[in-house]
Write a structure and sequence with these properties.
heterodimer, A: alpha/beta, Rossmann fold, seven-stranded mixed sheet, 7 strands, about 50% helix, about 10% strand, B: alpha/beta, 2 domains, eight-stranded mixed sheet, three-stranded antiparallel sheet, 30 helices, 13 strands, about 60% helix, binds magnesium ion
Chain lengths: ~250, ~700
């Protein structure tokens, strides 16, 4: 935990925004489990081994991301799998792409438990009437499925995905859309909780947010322009910081 | 191939379990326990290490032969040194070997015993991890307090110096593998456990019964026994003919303890108590039709308890017992501070009092070691006896409490003295047969019987028809429909008018009841296609599922009035035209599935998971009387989706030992989830009510 600001200089925020992936839950174990479930399915259906799978899958990812740089669809697993099947020379196997996508997200969700304390933190913020919202990259359907799986489907006052805006964070329009959904001013006093130094921390602090970075394995603390105001390792710490800052 | 897919799709432990174990390490109790253990390892050399175990392991590692036991007797002429088998030697070899070489390098003699003691810590720690894996959901504090910080385990392992942590860890890993359906590994591991210490044989019959009750006489049991046998052949058999092995391992003085408690029958005859008590334990487990993991672990613990209670115990034996006691304590959240801790302390005092736990205090890297000989705490034999008596009394008390708790937790024990009867009724004739078949696959072919009620009425109503017609052949809808008509005709016909007709009908019902009563399998699916079971049969039904077609818009919108007659109410309705008449010709995928769930019963989770995991379209609404939640499903969940939802919704799903390949895709899968959830809930409330009875 680091405090770069004196706590008494802070105003009560008009809203607190949360990133989703790797912020509310740990992304990489879920993603890894999901990829290996797909890999296994491919192996059983098409007899393609692990090394070949990952070679084509990673190539497909690169291709899709190249065409759709910094957009929500650039993260679409459906497009990755469709492209991978094309790269494997199998023509358009739509049902297979859909099946793989479903396998991917089913396994992903089953391996994505919320970080402990997330619910307590959100409930605290609701109890003191601070508006909370989600600002996240990726397509709306799966992000809504995720929030439903977490049981957070009616917790937030607003949800914005980069699909709605057409461009991933740190594109400021993501934040602007959430402000208009919350019905608050264009440049409010807001706080941002996220994991990514560039899209979350830099993105939000560039329009004046107080930033909180969730640190866990493989998450590097941002530096320079990407330097967060606070870091936390678990949500109970964050809850304590919030309580201290807001009560003052 | 599909089978393979779904079996492997689930890793035996998920992200959540990994995180639980990670968090276990962060607990202050873990650090405290570890610190105490490390401190003891550094400062105390148990006497039995230096005088018994170390010379043997040293001899085996420095003069390598194929028969370390004979070689040791030749060199040292001591037969009590190492009454353990190959895997025990193997377990202690790697670290000790490193220690020996380091000692050579620095020309000391301190590192070898230190590395030997560190091995005990490795196994002690592994027991903790396997306990966590077997328990799945547990309170970190209770687990750490009862096992990791148990004074008894700490004393026996690190002060007295017993090395029973090795066989116990192997036994627990075997049990863990059985839980994960890894029967080959389980077989090898139990063979390793037995090879390290023969007393572990006690657990083998219990494990065999457990697998048999979970999976029947099938490939799983075969795999386990085969691999146990192969393991024993590899790790035990080669040494059987060695004199050294026979002397040191087979005929240890511990074997004689088995015969030390007996009832004298006259002057010469004796009845040995331990075999009788052990057989009794086996019988208690054997007579259960289904065994949950809870009961199995508690029963194994009871088996070990019976040894402790009826044999003058050797200190190491408490280590076998403690993990099972801990399992009971963590599960029940009882007897942790009171009897449990008291037993720990009394047994600890007893061990100090009655056994020779001499130790050598060793300051690290100082060659000035002082020998502390352990004198009995109590000189007076009477007080010694009182202490021993209180230990045994506490042991008996714990055993009784474990037993009563175990039986109550094993809800299957209560219901499956008779079959659990599931009746499937309703007019969706083209779905019900496949629902029965799929549910049978889920419970397991050999655990389930399907009875179609019309078969009995049919054969008695039409005496000229072939009576022995197999039930599977009359599943097609036309017969069912005509039979239903027939039974409704019967209902509408005054009995006095047609006595022959009525006579045949009631004879049919009687033979139906007989055949229900004679069913021996755990589950009975009664395909009730005559929709008019006699009331005494109705009373026997444990779960009533009704599945009807809805063909008109009115029926679709109105809440049916007879929902309370069934436990689960399901409806199918065509997606497009609600007034179509050719229902049965359309495939089930073109339908919407509707179910009314009692308010509060799983609908919230089912909604959430159907949307998030399977991306189904689901509508829910509360009925006007606010008693039911109407859920309307549209879409085609895959079998893996269904299985995933079931796992998330039903916490006790492992106790059913369901067949993963028996899950169905589509709406039948959803009905399977409803059935299992309902049974799970009913079992929970059943055990709750017996709970109350027990208290009174
Ligand atoms: Mg993120």
């Amino acid at each position: 935990m680091n405090n770069s600001l004196p706590s008494n200089s802070l105003k009560r925020p008009e809203a607190i925004l949360f990133d989703t992936d790797n912020t509310l839950y740990e992304y990489s174990p879920a993603n890894k489990a999901a990829e290996s479930a797909v890999c296994l399915k491919i192996k059983n259906l098409l007899g393609i081994d692990k090394i070949t799978f990952y070679r084509f899958y990673n190539q497909a990812k690169i291709d899709v991301k190249q065409n759709l740089a910094n957009t929500a669809s650039g993260h679409s697993r459906l497009l990755y799998f469709q492209r991978m099947i094309e790269l494997l020379g199998l023509k358009a196997q739509l049902l297979l792409s859909l099946d793989l996508e479903q396998t991917f997200w089913r396994t992903f969700l089953a391996n994505a438990p919320l970080f402990p304390g997330v619910v307590d933190t959100l409930m605290y913020l609701k109890s003191i009437n601070v508006p909370i919202a989600i600002v996240t990259d990726l397509t709306s359907h799966i992000q809504m499925r995720k929030l439903t799986y977490f049981g957070l489907e009616d917790t937030f006052d607003a949800v914005v995905t980069s699909e709605e805006v057409g461009s991933d964070k740190p594109d400021i329009r993501n934040f602007e859309l959430v402000f208009s959904k919350l019905g608050i001013s264009d440049r409010p006093d807001f706080w941002m909780v996220g994991d990514d130094p560039f899209s979350d921390i830099y993105g939000a602090s560039s329009i004046g947010a107080i930033t909180f970075q969730k640190i866990h394995s493989n998450v590097k603390k941002g530096t320079n322009l990407e330097k967060p105001d606070y870091t936390f390792n678990n949500y109970y710490q964050l809850l304590d910081i919030f309580k201290e800052l807001i009560d003052n | 191939m599909l089978n393979k897919l779904s079996r492997k799709a689930f890793t035996p432990y998920g992200i959540e379990e990994q995180r639980q174990i990670y968090l276990l390490h962060k607990q202050p109790l873990f650090i405290i326990g570890l610190a105490i253990k490390l401190l003891l390892i550094i400062s105390i050399t148990p006497y039995i290490h230096t005088s018994w175990f170390l010379p043997f392991v040293f001899n085996s590692l420095t003069s390598i032969t194929i028969d370390p036991w004979s070689s040791f007797i030749e060199n040292n002429n001591q037969i009590n040194s190492f009454p353990y088998g190959l895997s025990m030697l193997a377990a202690y070899s790697p670290l000790t070997l490193i220690g020996i070489n380091l000692d050579k390098l620095f020309s000391t003699n301190l590192i070898t015993p230190l590395s030997f003691r560190l091995t005990s810590l490795v196994f002690d720690y592994s027991i903790l991890i396997f306990l966590a894996l077997i328990l799945k959901n547990y309170s970190h504090k209770i687990l750490l307090f009862t096992y990791w910080c148990s004074p008894l385990v700490i004393f026996i392992t690190y002060v007295h110096g017993q090395i029973d942590v090795v066989p116990v860890m192997l036994l627990l890993s075997c049990i863990c593998m059985v839980g994960w359906n890894r029967y080959r590994s389980a077989g090898i591991l139990i063979a390793l456990a037995v090879s390290s210490k023969f007393s572990m044989l006690i657990a083998v019959p219990l494990i065999i019964i457990f697998i048999h009750r979970r999976k029947g006489l099938d490939i799983e049991l075969l795999k386990f026994t085969l691999f146990t046998f192969i393991g024993l052949l590899l790790f035990v058999f080669p040494f059987i003919f060695s004199n050294g092995y026979q002397e040191m391992v087979f005929f240890t003085k511990e074997v004689n303890r088995l015969y030390s408690v007996f009832i004298a029958y006259g002057a010469t005859l004796r009845v040995y108590v331990v075999p009788i008590v052990y057989l009794l334990t086996l019988y208690l487990v054997w007579r259960l039709r289904r065994i949950t993991q809870d009961l199995f672990l508690i029963a194994t613990g009871l088996g070990f308890f019976s040894l402790i209670i009826f044999i003058p115990p050797a200190p190491g034996w408490f280590v076998w017992l403690i993990p099972f006691l801990v399992y009971y304590q963590v599960r029940s959240k009882r007897d942790i501070l009171t009897i449990g801790l008291l037993f720990n302390i009394v047994a600890l005092l007893n061990s100090i009092n009655t056994s020779n736990s001499n130790i050598i205090l060793s300051m690290p890297f100082v060659n000035d070691n002082s020998y502390i000989s352990n004198t009995p705490l109590l000189i007076n034999q009477f007080y010694t006896n009182v202490l021993f008596t209180s230990q045994q009394a506490l042991a008996i008390l714990l055993a009784v409490r474990m037993y009563s708790y175990g039986l109550r937790r094993n809800s299957f024990y209560k219901i499956t003295n008779d079959s659990f009867i599931i009746s499937l009724s309703g007019n969706a004739f083209f779905v019900i047969p496949s629902l029965s078949r799929c549910t049978k696959n889920l419970f397991g072919q050999k655990f389930t019987t399907i009875i179609k009620s019309s078969t009995f009425i049919d054969s008695h109503m039409n005496p000229l028809k072939n009576i022995n017609k197999p039930s599977e052949n009359i599943l097609d809808k036309s017969t069912s429909a005509s039979l239903t008509e027939l039974s409704y005709n019967y209902l509408n016909t005054p009995h006095s008018v047609n006595p022959v007709y009525s006579n045949h009908f009631s004879r049919g019902l009687r033979s139906l009841i007989n055949s229900v009563n004679n069913t021996k399998t755990d589950f009975l699916i009664l395909n009730d296609d005559i929709n008019m079971l006699p009331s005494n049969l109705k009373k026997m039904l444990n779960l009533k599922l009704n599945l009807n077609m809805i063909t008109t818009r009115d029926d679709f919108e109105q809440t049916p009035s007879d929902l309370h007659k069934f436990n689960i109410n399901c409806f199918l309705t065509p997606v497009n035209s609600l007034n179509s008449n050719s229902l049965s010709s359309v495939s089930i995928d073109k339908y919407r599935f509707i179910t009314y769930l009692p308010l509060g019963f799983i609908h919230d989770q089912l909604l959430r998971l159907s949307i998030s995991i399977c991306a189904l379209k689901v509508d829910t609404e509360l009925t006007p009387d606010k008693q039911w939640v109407k859920m309307i499903f549209e879409g085609e969940p895959s079998r893996d989706d269904i299985s995933q939802i079931a796992r998330s919704i039903i916490p006790q799903i492992d106790d059913f030992s369901l067949y993963e390949s028996g899950w169905s895709s589509g709406y039948i899968g959803i009905m399977q989830i409803l059935i299992i959830s309902f049974i799970s809930e009913q079992l929970a409330t059943t055990s709750y009510s017996t709970n109350l009875k027990f208290v009174q």
